[in-house]
């Protein structure tokens, strides 16, 4: 048995207690909590006659490197702040790691809400809880740590109403290596609290990711649940990336103060550089109403059953609910499984596929951009390994934090963060993560053909994200068309080899030259710096109506999906009615829909950008300007009125909203038809599909 922290401090006070590092010195009482790979018990530390909490982590349920876990456990021991749960000590026993912590008798805010405040806490309680959390965060950030899992379930309350941020350290380490999502049970977190830049993982993130999670937690405490919590993880990702940030905007939120709404709005800004630091947030007027810990004890703990009993009751309640809903849950699971097996779920992130689309052989210049585009999604450990020198993607990334530097001085390079002002970038990323485009990469002989059968035959060559599965999937891939993780990783390496130019197992469009190919993971600025002007010809329109199957066109999507150079109008391969059902079951139709829509968005962005530059040059030019040199020399200036530019611009801007609507409609359609397909109800063209009509008119 090995252990650390034998002489751990006893809570930062003068008294220092020696916590033993032998299992025999602890008597485990009842279970008081469960995480993905750990069970937490109330326990007695016999030599000290002190009640403690013991978190028992099962290595067999994790893939984490033991050294990492130990290191993190050690970090927990070094923590010394009244608002962060520290570890007294830790040690291993067989296949388990025991982390000894102070016992937080109130349990987590989530448990308290579930037990007695299902619709959330009152504002003064929230302000008090959040102020304490912010103090803890300020401490962590100041010491170069990002918590990365701020949520009500990790805000613990002690017997006197003291508030501490828990789950820092060990589980964050586990999070890195993806184990949270390995266990497929109800305890697995969804990305509801995850900041957009963490989801994107294109350029890393810093302590401000915690501020986003903090804002989501504020909403969680106000409503009793986090925004989007009823949706499946992938939808949450998509919604977080695409939708406006959530807030206290509903009728039911009228009871909350303006200060509260403002405070949340400050946290939930998609551009991390615009989020305040914990220190700055603490100065918000909202926190003036925060009260003492006694107030919390009174409001939250009085009359509350013991933690063990509460936990047990909640567990039983969950179990009986499960039993009651067994049938429908079974159905849901079935549908979910089917979705994943078929690979047509919109929540099936096909990162490899996207990467292979985007890279087109030559774009992977740095070690992160291609090889790890999916790994970087959540697996920071492997990212760290792949990251170029100097790019620290670890949880200590926030070493850059300087408490004295407030909002305007940002640890991250501003050019590397996503911005709400860059919808195309966001959408691109959303689609990179959320849009199923399996059908877009095919073997050579399928590439130019409209042969759906052929596409389906080769669906087994479509690489899928094993990481996605590890993190989010509800089922493993199986026989019908998708890959085992082994196969997937083989394919990943194939793709990587191809990216490096070692053979080309995939057909690459001639029309997208290496030079013109995008640097997918570059910043928005880089995006703008492209030297090759995109050719933008035509748009398309999706309107309710009927599918005009006869107007099937050859798929141009493979090329267009390179997302930077559009050599021709992205067209939609509309299946014949006979093929429609199988196409939909195969998902390729939706994939094409997503891709066409995505292409459209990007085109719009490029046009907007070009117009902006034109306006900046105080001139107007007919036709589509060069992206590389939008400022046409004065000799070539036309007399077109600048008014026409602004008219066009507003039209294009209006199109953005429409595109978002369309995206949601497609998602809905897919969900419904997936469900139908799962029930075996699809016979012939589904009604949903029949309501779609495509034309190549301007999107209005
Ligand atoms: N020190 C503690 N005192 C009392 N209860 C605790 C303590 N630590 C954890 N718990 C309870 O156990 C639950 C699970 O613990 P913890 O969050 O550390 O595990 P985890 O595996 O990291 O979970 P997850 O990753 O799902 O958040 C917590 O939500 C909380 O209710």
Brief rundown of the structure:
The protein has 700 residues and is an alpha+beta fold.
What does this protein look like?
The relative contact order is 0.09. It is globular, with a radius of gyration of 27 Å. It contains 26 helices and eleven strands. By secondary structure, the protein is α+β, with helices and mostly antiparallel strands. The longest helix is centred in the C-terminal third of the chain and has 37 residues. Among the domains are: 85 residues, 2-Layer Sandwich (Phosphorylase Kinase, domain 1), CATH 3.30.200.20; 204 residues, Transferase(Phosphotransferase), domain 1 (Orthogonal Bundle), CATH 1.10.510. The site of adenosine-5'-triphosphate (ATP) has 27 residues, from β2, β3, β4, β6 and β7.
List keywords for this structure.
3-stranded antiparallel sheet; Phosphorylase Kinase, domain 1; ATP binding; 26 helices; Serine/threonine-protein kinase BLUS1; disordered C terminus; 6-stranded antiparallel sheet; Kinase-like_dom_sf; Transferase(Phosphotransferase), domain 1; about 700 residues; alpha+beta; binds adenosine-5'-triphosphate; protein serine/threonine kinase activator activity; about 40% helix; 11 strands
Ligands bound to this protein structure: adenosine-5'-triphosphate
Fraction of residues in β-strands: 5-15%
Spatial gap, N to C terminus: 68 Å
Number of helices: 26
The tally of beta strands, per DSSP, is 11
Mean of pLDDT:
59
State the strand order across the main sheet.
1-5-6-4-3-2
Shape: globular
CATH architectural arrangement of one domain: Orthogonal Bundle
């Amino acid at each position: 048995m090995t252990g650390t922290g034998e002489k751990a401090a006893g809570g930062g006070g003068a008294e220092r207690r020696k916590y033993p590092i032998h299992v025999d010195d602890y008597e485990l009482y009842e279970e008081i909590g469960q995480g993905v790979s750990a069970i937490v018990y109330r326990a007695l530390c016999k030599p000290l006659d002190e009640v403690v909490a013991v978190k028992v982590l099962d290595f067999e349920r994790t893939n984490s490197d033991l050294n990492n876990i130990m290191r993190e456990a050690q970090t927990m021991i070094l923590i010394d702040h009244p608002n962060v749960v520290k570890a007294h000590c830790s040690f291993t026993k067989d296949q388990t790691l025991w982390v000894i912590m102070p016992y937080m008798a109130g349990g987590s805010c989530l448990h308290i809400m579930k037990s007695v405040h299902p619709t959330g806490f009152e504002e003064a309680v929230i302000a008090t809880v959040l102020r304490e959390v912010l103090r803890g965060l300020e401490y962590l950030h100041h010491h170069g740590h990002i918590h990365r899992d701020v949520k009500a379930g990790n805000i613990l309350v002690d017997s006197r109403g003291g508030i501490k941020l828990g789950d820092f350290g060990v589980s964050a380490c586990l999070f890195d290596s993806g184990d949270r999502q390995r266990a497929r049970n109800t305890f697995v977190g969804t990305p509801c609290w995850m900041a957009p830049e963490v989801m994107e993982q294109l350029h890393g993130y810093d302590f401000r990711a915690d501020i986003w999670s903090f804002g989501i937690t504020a909403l969680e405490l106000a409503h009793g649940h986090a925004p989007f919590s009823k949706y499946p993880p992938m939808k949450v990702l998509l919604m977080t990336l695409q939708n406006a940030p959530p807030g206290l905007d509903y009728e039911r939120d009228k009871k909350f103060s303006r200060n509260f709404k403002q405070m949340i709005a400050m946290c939930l800004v998609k551009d991390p550089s615009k989020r305040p630091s914990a220190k700055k947030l603490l100065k918000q007027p909202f926190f003036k109403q925060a009260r003492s810990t006694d107030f919390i004890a009174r409001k939250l703990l009085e009359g509350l059953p013991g933690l063990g009993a509460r936990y047990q009751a909640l567990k039983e309640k969950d179990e009986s609910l499960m039993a009651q809903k067994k049938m429908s849950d079974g159905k849901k699971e079935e549908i979910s499984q089917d979705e994943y097996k078929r690979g047509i779920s919109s929540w099936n992130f096909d990162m490899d596929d996207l990467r292979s689309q985007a890279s087109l052989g030559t774009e992977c210049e740095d070690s992160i951009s291609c090889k790890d585009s999916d790994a970087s999604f959540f697996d920071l450990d492997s990212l760290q390994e792949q990251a170029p020198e100097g790019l620290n993607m670890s949880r200590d990334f926030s070493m850059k934090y300087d408490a004295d530097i407030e909002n305007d001085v940002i640890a991250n390079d501003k050019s590397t963060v996503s911005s709400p002002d860059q919808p195309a970038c966001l959408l691109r990323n959303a689609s990179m993560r959320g849009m199923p485009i399996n059908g877009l990469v095919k073997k050579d002989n399928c590439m130019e053909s409209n042969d759906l059968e052929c596409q389906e035959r080769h669906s087994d060559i479509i690489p899928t994200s094993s990481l996605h599965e590890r993190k989010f999937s509800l089922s493993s891939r199986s026989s019908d068309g998708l890959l085992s993780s082994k196969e997937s990783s083989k394919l990943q390496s194939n793709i990587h080899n191809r990216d490096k130019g070692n053979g080309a197992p995939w057909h690459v469009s001639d029309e997208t030259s290496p030079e013109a190919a995008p640097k997918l993971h570059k910043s928005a600025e880089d995006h703008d710096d492209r030297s090759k002007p995109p050719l933008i010809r035509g748009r398309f329109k999706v309107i309710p109506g009927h599918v005009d199957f006869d107007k099937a066109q050859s798929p141009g999507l493979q090329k267009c999906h390179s997302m930077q150079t559009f050599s021709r109008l992205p067209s939609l391969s509309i299946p014949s009615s006979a093929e429609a059902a199988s196409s939909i079951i195969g998902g390729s139709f939706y994939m094409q829909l997503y891709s066409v829509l995505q292409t459209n968005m990007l085109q719009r962005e490029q046009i907007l950008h070009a117009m902006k530059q034109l306006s900046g040059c105080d001139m107007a030019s007919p036709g589509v300007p060069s992206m590389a040199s939008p400022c046409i020399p004065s000799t070539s200036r036309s007399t077109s009125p600048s008014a026409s530019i602004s008219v066009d611009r507003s039209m294009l801007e209006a199109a953005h909203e429409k595109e978002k609507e369309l995206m949601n409609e497609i998602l809905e359609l897919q969900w419904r038809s997936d469900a139908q397909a799962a029930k075996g109800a699809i016979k012939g063209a589904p009604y949903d599909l029949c309501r779609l009509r495509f034309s190549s008119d301007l999107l209005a």
